[in-house]
Amino acid sequence: MEQLNYKVLENSGYDGYILKINGKEIAQRVGGWQQTALHEITSSLKPGKNTIEISVMNENGPTALIGELRFDMPDGKIILIKTDKSFKVKQTAGKGT
What we know:
By secondary structure, the protein is mainly β.
């Protein structure tokens, strides 16, 4: 398996979000939906299949998420995976709803 040098997840989600990789919480952010956050996730990934879960919160309406996963390959190639309609989405009601 080819070794990856650098993996970064960049995302933004309304009132806040919780980022988990393989079931472990990696980051939490409150507010600031107009600015993206960078998360270096190299140490959280394992060889083979990985699960990235982002729970997005918004107290004043529907939620949304914009994200991009970047892989810098040893040969200099960059692979980008951007959120789109192919991503699995699960909607749940928050507290008090």
